[in-house]
Amino acid sequence: MTTQKPITLKLLVDKKSNRVLFAEAKKDFVDFLLALSTLPLGYITRFLTTKNMVGSFGDLYESVENFEDAYMQPNVDKDAILKPVWAASFTSSSSTYNPLLLPSDSVATIKYYKCAQYGHLSITSDPQTQCPYCKSAMSTKINYVLPKTAEQGFVKGATTFMVTDSLKVMPMSAISSISVLKGFNIPDLSYVQEMEVEFGTKEGMKLLKTALQSKTALSDVFLWEEIQIEMMQLDAAHDDTEKNCNNNVPPDLSTSTLVMEPGIEGMARED
Q: Which InterPro entries does this UniProt record tie to the protein (predicted)?
């Protein structure tokens, strides 16, 4: 099992509000985002687990898991529903481009088969399919080879893209950057900082889950730990303040006893 090299992202962050304004991204990250929309729901559930699914789909997935084979069509394999293998249109038997940064056994290579008889030109993706001409199994494997000049993935590699916190994607330009910054109404730009992060399989799974339930996906993935640390520091500071206030509470004079010092008339000592 192998995973791809992590992607490097540049984030523009508002440190005062602890949010990502936008990310400057290359082809690899944008291909990842666009590939998310090609995933079957069963594939998503398999990786997020049913407990982390939003809504009712987790229960539906579990019910299919518990289905007895007696209730399924004889030619239906439950794994095809529960564990579908993702196959992008830019994979071939000689080259696999994996924009989702997933383990290699999770990405399918497109395979094609034909009848062994000469002149029978039909093809199929299932080697058990009968040839329409001679009814023999179409089990002879043929390879699909991508043209050498073809660029893999969804978007062109020469373009730099802007990705907002809500995962809106657009070509990067000075005008688009200024437009996005104006939309945030940031009064003090001194709080805006650039932050470089790595994006790999772990972050990809987090982003997939977060994108299904949040409009601040990038902030939730990359700044959540910082937010948690800040909240813990604020709680600790609040506890220290309360402790100091309790230590400085003046004595309750209603329960004090006044003792006269000998030889000093009119003076009192408090016990």
A: DUF674 (IPR007750)
* Residue 65 confidence (pLDDT): 86
Specify the pLDDT at position 136.
95
Whole-Å CA distances, 138 to 82, 89, 119, 252: 27, 22, 13, 95
Residue ranges of the domains in the chain?
7-109+152-230
* Whole-angstrom distance, CA of residue 78 vs CA of residue 72: 8
What is the secondary structure of 145-203 as a DSSP string? ---TTPPPSSS-TT--EEEETT--EEE--HHHHHHHHHHHT-S-GGGEEEEEEEE-HHH
Which residues make beta-bridge pairs with 23?
11, 163
Q: Judge contact between 24 and 146, C-beta under 8 A.
A: no
197: left (phi over 0), alpha (psi -120 to 50) or beta: beta
Residues 100, 211 contacting (CB under 8 angstroms)? no
Residue 1 banded pLDDT, cuts 50, 70, 90: very low
Q: 84 near 43, Cβ under 8 Å?
A: yes
**pLDDT score recorded for residue 87:** 56
* Axis crossing angle, helix 41-48 with helix 57-66, rounded to the nearest 10: 90
**More confident position, 68 or 237:** 68
Write phi, then psi, for 226 (nearest 5 degrees). -65, -40
104: left (phi over 0), alpha (psi -120 to 50) or beta: alpha
d(CA 166, CA 108): 29
**Per-range mean pLDDT, top range of 12-16, 61-65, 257-261, 264-268:** 12-16
| Arithmetic mean of pLDDT, 188-200 | 91
Q: 45 to each of 69, 80, 200, 217, how far by Cα in Å?
A: 21, 13, 19, 19
